[in-house]
Amino acid sequence: MRVISTDEKTSIQARRRIHASLPPASGRPTRVEHEYERRGAWAYLAAWDVHRAKIFGRCEATTGIAPFDRLVEDVMAQEPYRSARRVFWISDNGSSHRGQKADQRLRSRWPSVIPVHTPVHASWLNQVEIYFSTIIQCKVLTPSDFASLAELEAALLAFPYRYENSQPLSAGPSHERNLPPSCNGSKPHPCLPQRDPLEIRHRNSELEY
Questions:
Q1: What is the phi/psi pair of residue 141, to 5°?
Q2: Is 42 in a helix, a strand, or coil?
Q3: CATH architecture under which domain 2-7+36-206 falls
Q4: Is-contact 20 33, C-beta < 8 A?
Q5: What pLDDT score does 168 carry?
Q6: Percentage helix, strand, coil for the chain under 3-state DSSP, each rounded to 5
Q7: Residue 6 and residue 84: Cα distance in Å, rounded?
Q8: What is the pLDDT of residue 180?
Q9: Which residues of the chain have pLDDT under 50?
C-alpha cells in the first residue's frame, strides 16, 4: 500500500525585482526592492509520498484534467507505485480530480489508484499543504526574485532533490520521525542556475522594504 498526497499551487509568478536586493550587514537586515516586473507564471503540481518523504512535481501553464493526469502518470509509471496493489491518492475537491467521473477516469487508466478526497472546505487536512505552505513558500519563493519562467521552473523542480537529500528521516513510527530539516548544506542540483534561488535567503520578519 502506498499513500500519495497531492495538490496544485496556481499562478506562481516569476517576479524580477527592479533593483537587486541588498544583503544584510551589521545592524541592518536584508533590503528587498518592492517594485518588480512580471515575467509570467506557472501552475505547480506536486505529489508527496507521505511514508517515504518523496516529492514529485511538475510545472504547467495551467491546471486541469490533462496536467493532473500527467502528474499521476509521472508517479504511477515508476516503482514502487507501478506494482503496488493499492495507491491511495489524497486530494482536495478541485475540478480536475473531483467527483465520480474523475475517480472512474483515474481508475480506468491506473486500476490500483484509489482516490480519496478531503472534506469540502477542509483541504488543509491534506499533508501536502505542509510542503506547499511551509517548505515551498519559505524556502523557494521568498523573496520572489526570478529573472524568467525558466529560472523559476528550475528552482521548483530542483528543490525536491535537495529536500530528499538533505537528511534521511530517522527510523521508527511515523509520529516519531524527524521533521524535514533545512536544505542548507545539501548538494547542488546540476539543473540549478548559477545564482541559486533555493537558499533560505530571508525570513519574512527580516525583510525591510
A1: -100, 0
A2: strand
A3: 2-Layer Sandwich (3.30)
A4: yes
A5: 53
A6: 30, 25, 45
A7: 18
A8: 44
A9: 169-209
CA distance 191 to 121: 37
DSSP state string for 159-194:
HHHHHHHH-PPPSS-GGGSPPP---TTPPPPTTS-S
By CB atoms closer than 10 A (0-12, 13-18, 19+), residue 20 is exposed
Q: Per the structure block, which three cell numbers stand in for 72?
A: 499521476
Identity at 58, one-letter amino acid code: R
d(CA 112, CA 76): 9
- The predicted pLDDT at position 195 comes to 45
User: Distance between CA atoms of 142 and 19, rounded to whole angstroms?
Assistant: 16
Distance CA 68, CA 129 (A): 17
- CA trace torsion 193, 197, 201, 205 (10° rounding): 160
Distance CA 151, CA 163 (A): 18
Radius of gyration of the chain (CA): 18
Pairwise CA distance, residues 90 & 104, whole Å: 15
- pTM, to two decimals: 0.72
